Amino acid sequence: MSEKPTQDVARLSYEEARDELVKVVAELEQGSVTLEESLALWERGEALATACESWLSGARKRLDDAVAKKKAK
């Protein structure tokens, strides 16, 4: 990997981050990369998982706020 493993994660949509995370996990499970590549993939996967969690937390908050607003009416 030529760039830092976590460099562009913040710019990804939820779907992009999720899809890439699936690819990272599959590549790690194959075990066909070097130790250094594995470490970079692991770091990338951690960053992607964190981004996905952030997206999902934001979506959950929006839903909770919408439900609360509807109940307040």
Tell me what portion of residues adopts beta-strand conformation: under 5%
How many DSSP helices? 2
Distance between the termini: 53 Å
Estimated radius of gyration: 16 Å
Mean pLDDT: 92
> How many structural domains?
1
In CATH's first tier, which class applies? Mainly Alpha
Question: What is the level-2 CATH architecture name?
Answer: Orthogonal Bundle
Largest sheet: none
The proportion of residues forming helix, as a percent range, comes to over 70%
CATH fold type:
Helix Hairpins
The run of helices and strands is: HH
Number of strands: 0
Cα shape: elongated
Unreliable spans are none
Structural class, from helix and strand content? Answer: mainly alpha
How does this model look, in words?
Helix 1 runs antiparallel to helix 2 (35-72). Helix content is 75%, strand content 0%. The protein has a single domain, classed as Helix Hairpins (Orthogonal Bundle), CATH 1.10.287. The model has no long low-confidence stretch (mean pLDDT 92). The chain has helices at residues 14-30, 35-72. It has two helices and no strands. The protein starts with 13 loop residues before the first helix and ends with a helix. The chain is an all-alpha fold and 73 residues long.
